[in-house]
Amino acid sequence: MKFLCLPGGYSNSKALQTQLGPFCDALRSNGEANFFFTQGTSPVNPPPEFQGFFGPPPNYTFTTVDFPEMVKFNMRDFPRRESPEATIKYAISKAGNPTFSEVAASMSRLVDILDSDPEIEGLIGYSEGAEVAATLILEEERRRKAFGRIPQIKCAVFICGWPAKDPASGRIILADDFEREPITIPTCHVVGAADPFLDGSMALYNCCDPDTADLFDHGGGHVIPRNKQTLVDLSEMIRDMIVSVA
Question: Which of 76, 84, 147, 154 could form a disulfide bond with 245, CB atoms 3.0-4.6 angstroms apart?
Fold first, then answer.
């Protein structure tokens, strides 16, 4: 299976290739997987205190917050509430209920990538990339209903993810916005028990069909796992997912 790989915010495709290198090596060891890397198109400058943390420039995001000067919330003060959805809603409220631009444009560009390469049937997204991957799954379903376009993505791996955004409104989507889970394809959610943003990952997990969503805890923080045995175990889980959609 060929995976479209999406980096986190303030990063780029080259940095993601380095971050995912050991994971990709483990997954492709039996010849069942290959990868296509892309990145956001909105140039950004990391905050001075995070220079170098996101990898060498250029740095990009897939979407940009509208009126950033109005957003006072500091991600280092990320809250924890009684549920992942309550946490995300509280964080959104503290941030002034921001909306995001370029969501629809990002979706159009990514759908164009899919249309140009029918071998891509899976997604791997890290952090913002996981959020964008989830949004792309919903966008494929929207286009199926509106235009009859057959969805191409069969499964997804979300690493330290965030919930999807609505392409039309630019707002964050949560499970309680729907009568049932909106993402029904098989998914693997790679989370870290020590991740301060764990509720973001779990809010995304709650948007997925529990019968086809696997949860893998690497025990660390908001990072892509690199431990050899961890990657062996994770690769086995993902291979099972690939087989399930073959």
Answer: 154
pLDDT level of residue 136 (50, 70, 90 thresholds)? very high
pLDDT one-digit tens code per residue, 89-126 = 998 888 888 888 899 999 999 999 999 999 999 999 99
Q: Does the reported pTM lie above 0.85?
A: yes
Catalytic residue among 106, 127, 201, 235: 127
Catalytic residue list contains 127: yes
How close are the terminal C-alpha atoms of the chain, in Å? 9
Q: Over range 138-146, report the average pLDDT.
A: 96
How is the chain split into domains, by residue range?
Answer: 2-44+59-66+100-245
Q: Which of 162, 145, 6, 152 lies closest to 84 in space, CA to CA?
A: 162
What is the C-alpha separation between 138 and 166, in angstroms, rounded? 8
* DSSP codes joined into one string, 134-190: HHHHHHHHHHHHHH-PPP---EEEEES----B-TTT--B--GGGSSS-SB-S-EEEE
**Domain at 2-44+59-66+100-245: CATH architecture:** 3-Layer(aba) Sandwich (3.40)
